[in-house]
Design goal:
The chain has 10 helices and 13 strands. The chain has 326 residues and is of the alpha+beta class.
């Protein structure tokens, strides 16, 4: 006789009859019912139901009914749990998309900022109509006001932007919306300026940081693909960008103007960068345009390196270059 109790075998029978058990379990059940008349009759009854050759007694009928009801009850519990879990997931997604929202980037919001001393008035509107601001949080530290916003999909619950008034404990020197500087020292700051300012770094030899600056300036989309050559073994330290696409004579003047503008800004935000050079071809003829820090200083009207220390001055430099901002 198998050492496995009949109660265990009978609990497994509904799954065995439905073909849901594995080969090892099947073998155990078959060996058991070959030696146990009572379990064999129970199994046969579950298989054939009203088989005339087998008429289980009243106790066996009750046991079979119990097993079937227990199977249905367990199935109901499982299906109910799955349904409840699915409903919870749907509610969480709905709440996040339409009620609570999530933190967003500053460039998702168009801002109108007014600052007088320690008093701030700010209105923000999502760039895209499909979004709405669901909540804001204001923090203050050493004259810097940071407004953190959450966005949801626009609906009758949350329809659009926000308006905040705030009185700080001291004079306001800078206003940030999420990760973006929108106002500094009496001047509205463009999205481009804020993005470039965040990429400031000390050494031209830090190529990943250089790449962040170039990406913030959107150089590849304007000038095309390029390769990089760095001069870091001795002063003057330089960065040469070699364009891989030929420039037509019609586009040459505009492209060279953009090169100069990018060079001014790159020299401003990379501390030890002394010059930027662009290598390119016009109708297949090789050209090089080089801008050094003295040229950049002359263009801006004061030490170009001051721009890397002040987001307001950097914004003035970018305005002067004429590069597209917001």
């Amino acid at each position: 006789m198998s050492k496995i109790p009949c109660e265990v075998i009978r609990d497994l029978m509904p799954l065995y009859v439905d073909g849901l058990t594995n080969e090892i379990t099947d073998k155990v059940i078959v060996e058991h019912v070959e030696e146990c008349d009572s379990c064999r009759k129970t199994l046969e009854a579950m298989r054939v139901g009203n088989d005339k050759e087998f008429a289980p007694n009243e106790n066996e009928k009750q046991e079979i009914d119990f097993l079937k009801k227990n199977k249905k009850r367990n199935l109901g519990i499982i299906l109910g749990s799955i349904g409840a879990a699915f409903l919870i997931i749907v509610l969480v997604i709905f709440a996040r998309m339409y009620l609570v929202g999530q933190n967003i980037y500053g460039d998702w919001i168009v801002c109108d900022v007014k600052v007088e001393g320690n008093h701030l008035e700010l209105e923000g509107t999502p760039v895209e109509d499909v979004h709405a601001v669901s909540g804001t949080d204001i923090t203050e530290e050493n004259g810097v006001i940071t407004i953190t916003t959450k966005a949801v999909l626009a609906s009758p619950i949350h329809k659009g932007g926000f308006r905040e008034e705030y009185t700080a404990g001291s004079e306001i020197t800078r206003v940030k919306v999420n990760d973006r500087i929108v106002w500094d020292s009496g001047k509205d700051i463009s999205q481009l300026t804020s993005s470039v300012y965040d990429t400031r770094h000390e050494y031209i030899g830090d190529m990943p940081a250089n790449g962040s600056t170039a990406q913030a300036l959107n150089i590849q989309n304007i000038l095309g693909e390029y390769t990089n050559e760095l001069k870091t073994d001795s002063e003057p330290y330089g960065w040469k960008l070699v364009l891989t696409e030929d420039i037509s004579p019609e586009d040459r003047t505009l492209k060279e103007s953009d090169m100069e503008s990018y060079a001014y800004i790159m020299i401003a935000v990379i501390d030890n960068l002394d010059y930027v050079a662009f290598g390119y071809t016009v109708n297949g003829v090789g050209k090089t345009k080089t801008v050094d820090k003295d040229m950049a200083t002359k263009f801006f009207g004061q030490d170009i390196k001051d721009c890397g220390k002040s987001v307001r001055l950097l914004d003035e430099l970018i305005d002067k270059t004429g590069l597209e901002t917001d």
